[in-house]
Design a protein that fits this description.
Elements lengths: L1 H19 L48 H33 L2 H12 L1 H10 L5 H33 L2 E4 L2 E2 L13 E4 L2 H12 L2 H11 L6 H53 L13 H11 L6 E2 L1 H8 L12 H12 L7 E2 H18 L9 H19 L13 H39 L3 H7 L1 H5 L1 H11 L4 H33 L6 H19 L3 E3 H24 L4
Antiparallel strand pairs: 1-2, 1-3, 3-6, 4-5
Main location: membrane
GO molecular function: calcium ion binding; calcium:proton antiporter activity
Subcellular location: Cell membrane
């Protein structure tokens, strides 16, 4: 009901705006000086009160426009709300579609593109229409949105998510729903899984097209700028394909990695069990596997003395092992994992050589993976270190036991799918319809106030296109859990990546096709600084103490100040 009320209110405001801003006719008196007029000796300067002669063109021939400051503020607000509604509809439709069809193609390919659609639309229309001179003037709106959206995601929104989602940090791991440290800058914060670090690294890689486009400027060359834009466009498009492909394959990669970690838990449990049953040590004094002891263990396990261990005998061996770190793993699963790893002849039995080789291989792996800082060839130390490392690896890979289940609700699923498609269609139509008038309003406001259009779009437009994403990210992060924090920061890094590849591809295509001049060195520098600082911060750590939020938020005013100094004080281009 509240959702419908918002739509009725928006439509009412829009209709009122159309009526208010319709064609108005009036007479005006031109103030001219004439030698025939008498003067009373008092000279009045009335030029600054005279009516402006500038005009504006109605978008699509009927949407209102104005040259006044307040009128353009009103238009920017109304069109911004409509773009916010578009982003919200696209987000809701995407989530419904993901719920029905699961990750894979939908989650990896369509959802990231749909999330960046409002920004891409605004960038596209900023330089699509009008003469080359008009496009060159308005395209700064597109660059302002591109830079402002990326910077806002990685600074204000990123930092806010750390603040609202903070928990106590113990050994760089956030304790779910425990917040007793207050605003301690080092002992309070959030932590994520390893996939968030991968997302941050991909975002760092996604800035390569910006570097490519800037090469002619770095070399003070004017002849190669158009070619550099084309090369940058190709690189950005290839990175877009690579990123979407990774998103499609990520669930499969994650399952494979988790399966391998669980397999390591099984082998570790087996080796610990064998160590307890061993008549001697599993390792010799020189640290090599003790094959004699391992052969004795084989003989003890081969209860029917047929020189082979069957799956029944293997089950009898491990029936007493408690694999506490492995979720939903029964004895049959453990037997299958061990048999698959040891049975190199694929006859579903393990002979003595296969048993010795299998145990020796895993003993050597434990030695290589364990820390060597305490005691030479300490078997207990090796096992404990390997156990801690494997447990940490599994924890980073799967913070909250994320599920890839797909909803199969029959008739209800069909209705949900239809609803999702309608929401996506409506959101796309709104974004396509009102992107152009919003850009025009920003450009007119810039003319009326003499404020560069870049700064208006840098600050104002991301509030419209990113507000839905920002609110949902902050609310999601406030649940004080590692799983929600991982999802939140992965989405923020993913959104910035899509800006750097999809939105930049649209922008570069616009510049290349229209033959526009690339004069955005200061803006590119700011994007590079913010992406590299926040990307490298997330690439090499999985915990974000509270001090990282201060760093992130301060980068926003720093970015504005840097662009102003470089563009309008030093005159960079």
């Amino acid at each position: 009901m509240a959702y419908k009320s918002k739509h009725h209110l928006t439509i009412s405001i829009f209709l009122f705006l159309v009526i208010l801003s319709g064609p108005t006719y009036a007479r005006f008196i031109a103030l001219r000086s004439s030698p025939d007029l008498l003067s009373d000796g008092v000279h009045l300067t009335l030029n600054r009160f005279a009516a402006e002669t500038s005009t504006c063109d109605e978008t699509y021939g009927f949407l209102p426009c104005t040259t006044s400051v307040l009128g353009n503020i009103f238009l920017i607000a109304v069109y911004g709300v409509l773009m916010f509604i578009s982003a919200k509809l696209l987000s809701n439709g995407s989530e419904l579609l993901l719920e029905i069809l699961g990750p894979g193609i939908i989650g990896g390919l369509f959802l990231p593109i749909l999330g960046a659609l409002p920004d891409a639309m605004l960038i596209l229309v900023s330089g699509l229409s009008g003469s080359t001179e008009t496009a060159q003037s308005q395209v700064s709106v597109g660059m302002g949105l591109l830079a402002g959206s990326t910077v806002m995601l990685l600074t204000i929104i990123w930092g806010s998510c750390v603040i609202v989602g903070k928990c106590d940090l113990v050994d760089s791991v956030a304790q779910d729903a425990e917040d007793t440290k207050g605003f301690n800058l080092t002992e309070s914060g959030v932590s994520t899984d390893i996939w968030t670090s991968y997302s941050a690294r991909m975002m760092v890689i996604s800035v390569i097209p910006f570097l490519v486009v800037q090469i002619p400027q770095l070399l003070n060359s004017t002849s190669g700028r158009h070619l550099a834009v084309l090369i940058g466009l190709i690189v950005a498009f290839l990175l877009l394909i690579a990123y979407c492909l990774f998103q499609v394959l990520q669930p499969w990669i994650q399952r494979r990695k988790l399966a391998y970690v669980r397999h390591k838990h099984v082998i570790l449990g087996l080796l610990r069990h064998l160590k307890q049953r061993a008549l001697g040590r599993l390792l010799k004094e020189d640290g090599s596997p003790d094959t004699e002891t391992i052969e004795k263990l084989f003989t003890a396990t081969d209860t029917n003395n047929d020189k082979e261990i069957s799956d029944i005998e293997l089950r009898a061996l491990i029936v007493g092992i408690h694999f506490e770190e492995i979720i939903d793993l029964d004895c049959d699963d453990a037997v299958n994992k061990i048999m698959k790893d040891f049975d190199t002849s694929h006859n579903n039995k393990i002979d003595k050589l296969e048993f010795v080789n299998g145990i020796s291989k895993w003993l050597n792996k434990i030695k290589r993976g364990a820390s060597r800082n305490a005691g030479r060839y300490s078997m207990t130390k090796f096992f404990n270190d390997f156990h801690k490392e494997t447990k940490r690896e599994g924890d980073l890979l799967d913070v909250g036991g994320q599920s890839d289940e797909v909803n199969e609700g029959g008739e209800n699923s069909k209705r949900t799918t239809i609803k999702a498609v309608l929401l996506l269609l409506l959101g796309t139509i709104i974004a396509a319809a009102f992107a152009d008038p919003l850009v025009d309003a920003v450009d007119n406001f810039s003319d009326a106030t003499s404020i560069p259009a870049f700064f208006i779009s840098f600050i104002a437009l991301p509030l419209a296109t990113n507000s839905s994403e920002a609110v949902s990210a902050i609310i999601f992060a406030s649940r004080d859990k590692r799983k929600t924090a991982s999802l939140t920061f992965s989405e923020l890094y993913g959104a910035a990546t899509m800006n750097n590849v999809l939105c930049l591809s649209v922008f570069l295509a616009l510049v290349y096709i229209r033959g526009l001049t690339w004069e955005f060195s200061a803006e590119v520098l700011v994007i590079l600084i913010v992406c590299l600082v926040m990307g490298l911060l997330g690439s090499f750590r999985t915990s974000y103490p509270l001090w990282t939020s201060i760093l992130a938020i301060l980068l926003y005013p720093f970015s504005l100040a840097l662009i102003y100094v470089l563009d309008y004080v030093l005159g960079w281009s």
